[in-house]
């Protein structure tokens, strides 16, 4: 017996994107941990089965009814542990195998879009992967699944019976609330606010190294940079002194770098946020993500301090309207996905702090410290950095706040940019952070971000105007 549920607007958007590229894994998302001890595979198999009754998404596939996409929830979950032997694989080969499992496409109509995979290199060396399609999960949901899986595994590995985990609240309640809010005065106020933000906006557009393909290929790569400890300390001090969040400082400075690279005095970029705002939804697996559009404005006199304070103000205002779905805003604006571009923005900026995760899992999920080994659920576990969702947009910047380390991932479309170009942008961001924290009243236009090697490099390829190239901005 099955039950049919309507989709949230975020899910509807994912259904549409899946239809555009059903053979792509670009919208798969997952989490992985390194296992550095022996695994009781029988207990792990049973643990995967045990968490099925707890989470409705582990029992849900997708279909169409009366021309609309719907979620079809069954009474039992077909998800089982997948085992892969990787004996003899070196680190790069193992990583490639993990990424292949993560990015294998999900047939949304035919099966539940989740997989739990154990990739074993030796009896005491394996990677445990939890992966799903974004229509059913998000980053926080993946940590919830891993938490429940390890809790069930710990009980089963001692010889106990399979735990009876209580079901969480229903994701359908979130969908119902979304509909009620949008059909209220508050919903109309949110629509008015975002319409005001987006009217006349232009996406931030970095010069590219290669011509833009006519269709998105979802081909990408990831560059990780670690923020030097002394710079991370200066960032926190500056934020505290200014009465703003570290996120506002990071985003404001990044927008400043974009201004210098693009010479756009008015541009928009996307900021992923969560709509998991109710304590009732705290343990629910589902897609609670929404991307809001922030507008950045710069002039010749704008200082780094101005940029940070303007960003902080926009972030505060946007939080009051965060429930308004981006897909509705894009539809109302008439924006469309043409020429291989997302509507309204091609660059996103996000920050994720491990402090938001389950306290016991934080050391395991802190990928800024990959060599840390923690005993949890009877296993020796280490964080495992798993780049994913590359090439969805031109550039996605993700700041990861670990226990004592700050790292930045630059996920980029590799058909548009050479790695050296992204490395240069990353260095400019770190340099701008250093300048902003030391001299916040310096005009952004006067900051020296480029060095002589940048100025002398050959012009970018792909038809980018010369006046948008770094050498022209000095």
From TrEMBL:
Tree of life domain: Bacteria
GO CC, any one term: cytosol
Region named Disordered: 201-220, 455-474
InterPro entries: CAT-like_dom_sf (IPR023213), Condensation_dom (IPR001242)
Protein name according to UniProt: Condensation domain-containing protein
Originating organism: Streptomyces filipinensis
Domain named Condensation: residues: 4-450
MF-aspect GO terms: 2,3-dihydroxybenzoate-serine ligase activity; phosphopantetheine binding
One Gene Ontology term from the biological process aspect of the record: amino acid activation for nonribosomal peptide biosynthetic process
Stretches with biased composition (Basic and acidic residues): 464-474
């Amino acid at each position: 017996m099955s039950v049919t549920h309507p989709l949230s607007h975020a899910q509807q958007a994912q259904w549409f994107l899946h239809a555009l590229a059903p053979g792509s894994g670009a919208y798969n998302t997952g989490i992985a941990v390194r296992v550095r001890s022996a695994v009781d595979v029988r207990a792990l198999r049973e643990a995967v089965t045990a968490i099925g009754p707890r989470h409705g998404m582990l029992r849900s596939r997708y279909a169409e009814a009366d021309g609309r996409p719907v979620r079809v929830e069954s009474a039992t979950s077909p998800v089982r542990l997948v085992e892969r032997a990787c004996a003899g694989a070196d680190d790069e080969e193992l990583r490639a195998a993990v990424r292949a499992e993560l990015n294998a496409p999900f047939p949304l109509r035919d099966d539940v879009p989740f997989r739990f995979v154990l990739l074993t290199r030796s009896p005491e060396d394996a990677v445990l992967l939890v992966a799903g399609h974004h229509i059913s999960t998000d980053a926080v949901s993946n940590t919830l699944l891993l938490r429940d899986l390890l809790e069930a595994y710990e009980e089963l590995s001692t010889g106990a019976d399979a735990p009876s985990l209580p079901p969480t609240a229903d994701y359908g309640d979130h969908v119902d609330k979304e509909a009620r809010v949008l059909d209220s005065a508050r919903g109309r106020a949110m629509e008015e606010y975002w319409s005001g933000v987006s009217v006349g906006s232009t996406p931030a557009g970095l010069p590219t190294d290669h011509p833009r393909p006519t269709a998105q290929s979802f081909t990408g790569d990831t560059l990780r940079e670690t923020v030097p400890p002394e710079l991370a300390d200066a960032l926190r001090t500056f934020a505290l002194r200014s009465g703003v969040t570290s996120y506002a400082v990071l985003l404001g400075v990044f927008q400043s770098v974009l201004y210098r690279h693009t010479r756009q005095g008015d541009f928009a970029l996307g900021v992923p946020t969560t709509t998991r705002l109710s304590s009732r939804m705290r343990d629910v697996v589902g897609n609670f993500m929404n991307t809001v559009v922030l507008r950045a404005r710069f002039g010749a006199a704008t200082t780094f301090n101005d940029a940070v304070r303007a960003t902080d103000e926009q972030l505060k205002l946007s939080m009051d309207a965060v429930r308004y779905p981006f897909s509705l805003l894009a539809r109302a604006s008439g924006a469309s996905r043409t020429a291989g571009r997302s509507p309204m923005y091609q660059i996103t900026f996000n920050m994720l702090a491990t402090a938001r995760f389950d306290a016991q899992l934080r050391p395991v999920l802190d990928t800024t410290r990959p060599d840390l080994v923690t005993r949890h659920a009877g296993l020796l576990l280490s964080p495992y950095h798993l780049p994913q969702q590359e090439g969805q947009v031109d550039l996605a910047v993700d700041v990861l706040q670990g226990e004592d380390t700050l790292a930045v991932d630059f996920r980029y479309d590799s058909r548009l940019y050479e790695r050296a170009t992204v490395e240069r942008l990353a260095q400019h961001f770190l340099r701008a952070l250093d300048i902003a924290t030391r001299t916040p009243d310096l005009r952004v236009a006067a900051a020296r971000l480029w060095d002589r090697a940048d100025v002398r490099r050959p012009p970018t390829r792909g038809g980018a105007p010369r006046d948008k190239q770094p050498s022209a901005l000095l």
